[in-house]
Design brief:
Blueprint (H helix, E strand, L loop, with lengths): L1 E9 L5 E9 L27 E5 L1 H6 L1 H4 L7 E4 H10 L1 H12 L5 E4 L17 H19 L5 E5 L3 H9 L4 E2 L1 H7 L40 H9 L3 E9 L2 E9 L4 E6 H5 L7 E6 L56 E8 L4 E6 L12 E7 L7 E5 L2 H4 L2 E9 L8 E10 L3 H11 L9 H4 L11 H5 L3 E3 L6 E4 L8 E7 L5 E8 L10 H9 L3 E2 L4 E2 L4 H7 L7 E11 L5 E12 L2 E4 H9 L6 H23 L9 E5 L6 E6 L4 H24 L5 E4 L5 H13 L9 H10 L7 H11 L5 E4 L28 H13 L12 H34 L4 E11 L2 E6 L4 E6 L10 E4 L4 E4 L5 E3 L3 E9 L7 E6 L1
Parallel strand pairs: 3-4, 3-6, 4-5, 6-7, 18-25, 19-26
Antiparallel strand pairs: 1-2, 8-9, 8-11, 9-10, 11-12, 13-14, 13-16, 14-15, 16-17, 20-21, 21-24, 22-23, 24-25, 27-28, 29-30, 31-32, 31-37, 32-33, 34-35, 35-36, 37-38
Length: 933
């Protein structure tokens, strides 16, 4: 049956055109219920054991997805109209409900109500799209009720009062979600319920547990129409809110409209915004910008008293500090940093949070509803109020809680319990918290994904050897240099002296795309994961282990498939020619950085492999020098290395990661390969190449570095990357660690390097600032980065080996892939840091230590120090947390904190002795406390 839908549309030229769309209606769409007599049972997903079939409306799916994912909810019909609405409103929830519909373990059936002749509904004049969709849900529910009469009960679940009333009038069995859950007799499921604050919810069966006497705590959010108008007139300013990791009552919003950061002081001015929310901000009057002059340190255990809050910057990078008190204790200069308040939320960043409940006495009676406060592991997140019927079971557990709403009359947001992770303090539990908090997918690979792998044992076949696209390079002396114990070996190198005095140098990269084909479950999984994640004690792979550790890994003494970049180079490391080829190699050695360095340093060794290493190292040094002369930055990071017990997985030792010449040698050739590949793919595919850029840092970002350097007598020129690199080279003092500290501070002022599609930006924006490279991409790690998989496909297509996959023809999809890669890359970094913090706590729990530290930031009530020996950073208080500073004041010009009587002064980059000890100021929230000796 054919149904025509017509609508009129106005073209850009102003003409009115009539469009007609054909909509096919069928009578052979089955209901999906196994016991149905009139439908084909081979298509059924809902078994005859289900006496009740549930139909969920859109809002129930959108708001109650945590509950729906519980195995107690089964035998569900998901209407296509509901799926479409959910997809339009919340893609994350859509992906979760789709996963349920495709899971073999769950009985969820998608019914195409929009294409069934008996359930399709025509548009009605004057009816809104939302009302039309609600009507379509009721019509489908009524059809199911008649269709399965005498076979099964059909129950429409809706929390919408109007929808429920109309359903009852049509004779449809319907319940609100809470009533249905109570009928199951599983009280714990009620903890998963979201109770929306909307007045449109049918609440006749819901207990109103809100306190009766309440006062307004927060200002009302402005409506979007007013926010949009205000942004257009630059009365309001839009940006992402970032909360200070050292003080959860301070935040900042980076605003393009004023070209500066707007500081938000206190929870009242944050006005119910969460870290990561896109917010609209109104500037405070300028005289209020000068109320406070410096930053303070605060902890989540501090009770918020707005009068005690001291304004400050945020984020994990050092930020500019307001000019403050001079030596006379008075304010010498007006504040240069604007302050504001949040007047509306443009886009929420709410998600599920890991943490524990605040300890509290058990309520009288068993199984009753207890009101509890959830405390997130992330100190930037406010406490969340939840209701639970299983308080006794949850007090000693790490749990996940989702935020539902934040009423302006409530000091805390409201949320609901999602699930239990494990016992507080258990290392496996705390490691899982790290993964959940950073949205890292650590689930085992599905059978569909594993089915894409070639059978083991795998070896290079005669077909591979005879393939004309692949060059046989097994005769060359290739070798790999990696961290100790590395099993997922991405890259190998070779260096041959040629008869003309030049060198042939090769970078050979695992040919992952020979096994990971576009559009397969394996490819889709790798695309979603984006990157492997390296924790202290384990690795979360992007690809299954048979690929990462065997089939693709360029292990010693086995033949492997590779994608090779081959250069002819002069002894001065000038590239004469470049070529790319698929290849077969046989690595002669898998060396660790320590082993490679030892070979190069041992003058007694003159074997061919050691000679190759020395030749490569000599070339790499010249390449590095030339790169630095172009303006590449040599920065530093506080990378920590743990020695882990192989049985208990507990840390045995901790220290800073040591970089050797061997590390730098490998890095130099990987950088060169990435640049060569970037040039090749962009030449062939100027609008769809995946590249990597590093935006130039803004003046505001570099301001704290300049201020700190000036305070210790170092003048940094930041006009270009070359000028900054030269300045950093000259920033030396008597202290051998001084230069590294300056470089660590410089690293933190940089922008984040990101992936992008070449068609989205103009060529000047392609620049990689840190590498001083006009073009750059990632090609050298396809085992652990999906970006490199994409680049391998681009390179193969540019060489005519394969056709370019269709995804490269769709710019929005490419942009979406790049966005996901940036998100996953950032999350992997954060997970790695969180894992280091967790193992640092475990290590120091039984090892209180006195050590030397360096002051890196001055605050009004103390300072933040960096501990070189352990790569640890944290706050040191000079006053009680509840005090503003008292007898101490900050000299902004000198970057010092001084005692009023002049008896003590602490300055930035100064050495101090500190005591490090794990304490637990709040139950279940251990932290590493640093105190001044």
């Amino acid at each position: 049956m054919l149904h025509n839908k017509s609508f009129v549309k106005k073209t850009k030229s102003g003409k009115i055109t009539k469009n007609v769309r054909e909509h096919y209606l069928r009578d052979d769409i089955y209901c999906g219920f196994q016991a149905c007599k009139s439908c084909d049972s081979s298509t059924a997903r809902i078994s005859s054991s289900h006496s009740t079939v549930l139909i969920l409306d859109t809002n129930v799916v959108l708001h109650q997805i945590d509950l729906i994912e519980n195995p107690a909810i089964d035998g569900v019909v998901v209407l296509s109209i509901v799926l479409q609405e959910v997809r339009n409103k919340n893609l994350a929830v859509y992906n979760r409900i789709r996963a349920l519909c495709s899971s073999s373990a769950r009985k969820f059936f998608v019914f195409s109500n929009e294409h069934h002749k008996d359930t399709f509904v025509h548009d009605m004049t004057g009816e809104s799209k939302n009302d039309r969709n609600d009507r379509a849900i009721r019509v489908a529910a009524q059809w199911y009720q008649n269709h399965l009469k005498g076979v099964a009960n059909v129950l429409l679940i809706t929390n919408d009062r109007d929808n429920k009333r109309k359903a009852v009038e049509m004779g449809i069995s319907t319940e609100i979600i809470e009533t249905y859950i109570k009928s199951l007799g599983q009280q714990d499921l009620l903890d998963l319920l979201v109770r929306p604050p909307s007045e449109d919810v049918a609440m006749e069966d819901v207990e109103d547990l809100r306190p009766s006497k309440r006062k307004v705590i927060y200002a009302e959010h402005k409506p979007m129409s007013e926010i949009t108008a205000g942004l257009h007139r630059v009365i309001y300013h839009q940006g992402k809110l970032r909360v200070n990791r050292y003080n959860p009552f301070e935040a900042y919003v980076g605003s393009e409209s004023i070209g500066d950061e707007i500081i938000i002081y206190g929870r009242t001015n944050m006005n119910r915004a969460f870290d990561g929310d896109i917010v609209a901000v109104e500037l405070l009057p300028q005289d209020q910008w000068q109320e406070e002059n410096s930053l303070s340190l605060a902890d989540e255990e501090d009770e918020e008293e707005e009068v005690h809050l001291v304004p400050g910057s945020a984020d994990d990078a050092p930020r500019a500090v307001n000019p403050g008190q001079g030596s006379n204790g008075n304010t010498d200069l007006p504040s240069s940093r604007p302050s504001g308040r949040v007047i509306g939320i443009i886009k929420r960043n709410w998600h599920s949070y890991c943490g524990s409940l605040e300890p509290m006495p058990m309520p009288a009676g068993e199984g009753g509803v207890a009101h509890a406060l959830f405390v997130s592991k992330d100190r930037r997140i406010p406490k969340i109020r939840i209701q639970t019927r299983q308080l006794g079971n949850l007090l000693s557990k790490r749990i996940i809680v989702a935020v539902d709403s934040w009423d302006r009359m409530s000091r805390y947001p409201s949320g609901h319990y999602v699930r239990t992770i494990g016992e507080i303090g258990d290392r496996d539990t705390e490691s899982e918290v790290v993964l959940i908090e950073n949205d890292v997918d650590a689930r085992p690979f599905s059978s569909q994904v594993l089915a894409c792998l070639p059978p083991l044992p795998w070896s290079v076949s005669s077909e591979d050897l005879s393939n004309s696209i692949r060059q046989d390079l097994r005769h060359i002396r290739a070798f790999s240099v990696d961290p100790p114990g590395c099993k997922d070996i991405d890259d190998a190198l070779h260096c041959i002296a040629l008869s003309n005095g030049h060198f042939e140098v090769g970078v050979h990269i695992a040919d992952v795309t020979n096994f990971v084909h576009p559009g397969t479950p394996l490819d889709d999984e790798a695309s979603q994961r984006g990157t492997s994640v390296y924790l202290v004690e384990r690795r979360i792979d992007m690809l299954p282990k048979p690929l990462t550790e065997d089939i693709c890994s360029l292990k010693a003494d086995v033949e492997r498939l590779a994608f090779s970049v081959l250069w002819e180079m002069t002894p001065e490391a000038e590239i004469i020619s470049t070529r790319f080829t698929k290849s077969i190699i046989k690595s002669c050695a898998a060396l660790s950085y320590i082993e490679a360095q030892a070979r190069m340093d041992d003058s007694r060794l003159v074997d061919p492999l050691t000679t190759d290493l020395r030749n490569m190292n000599a070339l790499a040094k010249k390449m590095r020098l030339r790169r630095i002369e172009r303006g590449a930055l040599t920065l530093a990071s506080a990378e920590v290395k743990f020695q882990i017990d192989t049985e208990t997985h507990d840390p045995l030792d901790i220290g800073m990661y040591q970089i050797r010449e061997a590390n730098q040698m490998v890095e130099e050739f990987m950088l060169a390969a990435n640049v060569s590949v970037a040039e090749k793919i962009l030449k062939h595919f100027p609008v769809c190449s995946l590249l990597r850029r590093h935006p130039i840092p803004t003046k505001e970002m570099l301001e704290p570095l300049l201020r700190t350097a000036a305070a210790v007598g170092v003048n940094l020129d930041v006009s270009t990357s070359k000028a900054l690199a030269d300045s950093l080279d000259h920033a030396v003092g008597d202290d051998p660690y001084f230069n590294k500290l300056i470089r660590i501070l410089a690293t933190r002022c940089m922008t984040q390097a990101v992936y992008f599609s070449s068609g989205d930006l103009s060529s000047p924006e392609y620049l990689h600032y840190g590498l001083a490279a006009p073009l750059y991409t990632h090609f050298t790690s396809p085992i652990r980065r999906y970006a490199d998989v994409i680049v391998h496909r681009l390179l193969a297509a540019s060489l005519g080996i394969y056709k370019l996959p269709t995804v490269f023809q769709e710019r929005p999809q490419l942009t979406s892939i790049a966005d996901n890669l940036n998100y996953r890359h950032r999350n992997a970094q954060m997970a790695g840091r969180s894992s280091v913090e967790l193992h640092t706590l475990i290590y120091f729990r039984k090892r209180p230590t006195d050590t030397e530290a360096r002051i890196v930031k001055i605050r009004s009530n103390g300072f933040i120090v960096f501990v070189p020996k352990y790569g640890i950073e944290g706050p040191v208080y000079l006053t009680e947390r509840s005090e503003k500073g008292g007898e101490w004041y900050v000299d902004e010009q000198q970057q010092q904190i001084k005692k009023m009587d002049g008896s003590s002064t602490y300055g930035v980059l100064q050495k101090v002795q500190i005591h490090m000890e794990v304490v637990e100021p709040q139950p279940n929230r251990p932290k590493l406390q640093l105190t001044l000796i």
